[in-house]
Amino acid sequence: MIVVTGATGATGALNGATVDHLLDRIPADQITVVVRDRAKAQRFADRGVAVRPAGYADPAELPAAFEGADQLLLVSSNDPGADAVSLHRNAIEAAVAVGVGRILYTSHQGAAADSPFAPAQVHAATEHLLAESGVAWTSLRNGFYLHSLDWLAGPWRETGIISVPADGPVSWTAREDAAEAAALILTAGTPLEGPVVITSQEAISFEQVAVTASELTGRNIGFEVVDQQDWVAAQVAAGSPEGMARFTLGMFRAAAGGWFAGVDPLLEELLGRKPRTVRAHLDS
């Protein structure tokens, strides 16, 4: 049995899509979703998927939710106010307690304790927990999600310019492609061990995004790198909480440091086709 967490709510766009792909490949009675709100998982229940209630913050609920899992797809917590590593520890310990065969964790490219991007530090710490758990594990290091360009590049369609506090190549990867890849990995005959990188085949900087946007729109879309503190101040003035602005600044700093620059052929090999590109996304 495959047990999937985070298939609804804010993380549902990733793991929910993975469940949809699983349903195309294996019978529904081989899939269980673990959710905090059963009502949000009704579409899966209607298709014959078992639904179990549990949340990472309640360790007592988790063992029963994971019972019988040959594989557990564990989505990372997206609560910015939570101690995500502790939440992940709760889930891993519960999986160990009930004898889960393998844990697959939705990590991120560039997971490292010294990354300027805070989630990368969480992913690195969680991967360490997995390595120490004694359970077989796979960490799906997904590339930076392509849809994030819609807000990270700012309102360039209105302003005619992409203005960022730092720049560097990013292997922008469609979340839909990553979700399909996870389903393919879960249903493959041979498991993948440890960290695996799931990215597009190209790493594109924000400056290159501006060039592509210019080609697609027939307009001259400008590009500039501005002072980082001035950028934070502008984000706050536009209504963003300062904590969120500084969190996002960490992404740009990590990009400038090359943390998201790597590409890997695995995603294309799994999908049997070219992954979605930045050009296709901007043109949609």
Notes on the structure:
There is one protein chain. The protein has a domain at 2-143 and 174-199 and 262-275: Rossmann fold. The protein is built from 13 helices and 9 strands. Strands 3-2-1-4-5-6-8 form a 7-stranded parallel beta sheet, sandwiched between helices. Strands 7-9 form a two-stranded parallel ribbon. It has 284 residues and is of the alpha/beta class. The chain is 42% helix and 15% strand. Helix 10 (228-237) packs antiparallel against helix 11 (242-256).
Break the fold down into its secondary structure elements and pairings.
Blueprint: E1 2-5, H1 12-23, E2 31-35, H2 42-45, E3 50-53, H3 62-66, E4 71-74, H4 84-97, E5 102-108, H5 118-133, E6 136-142, H6 149-152, H7 156-159, E7 161-164, H8 175-186, E8 194-198, H9 206-217, E9 222-225, H10 228-237, H11 242-256, H12 266-271, H13 278-282
Helix pairs in contact: 1-8, 4-5, 10-11
InterPro entries: NAD(P)-bd_dom (IPR016040), NAD(P)-bd_dom_sf (IPR036291), NmrA-type_oxidoreductase (IPR052718)
Protein name: NAD(P)H-binding protein
Organism: Nakamurella sp. A5-74
